[in-house]
Description:
The protein is mainly α. The chain has six helices and no strands. The N and C termini lie far apart (about 50 Å).
Amino acid sequence: VMYGLGGVVVGWRAMWPIVVGLTLQALLFQHGGITTSGVNGVMIGVPAMLVGGACRLVGLRRSKTVAMIFGFAAGAGAMILSLGLFMVIGLTADRRFFVAVQVMVIAHLIIALAEGAVTAAAVRFLSHVDPEMLSNGLKGGPVGDGGTAGSVDANSPSARSEEHTSELQSH
């Protein structure tokens, strides 16, 4: 699952790894099926892209508390958005489909809470270990962190590595 976390880390490019993962899942494990890869990719990829964009606008590197709150919202929100898309797609189905929808709504709301908690913990961990991973691939991070696209944060691992290299060369 974890497409909320995928959206936070990869951003608007989240659709590609999700579609590749679904295709491999269909080919290797015969789960999901090739014929439904497009619908499944949209149901999972679009919410991942939306929560990734929202987190980029908020700027997860601002503070660790904000990162955890929006990490939870991204994880749970992506699951709920995906469930909403599933229900919209199901409007074209037979009446018997709605019995399955009722069961899926209850199960996925519980899963959404768990995914939100795991995503919040992962975002908190990444904010400690490598905050650049929360910038959706932009050096310097998203709006609100004081950096601009293309710049390197002075405390980032790459900046510290460059500083260490220049110290070694000077000796």
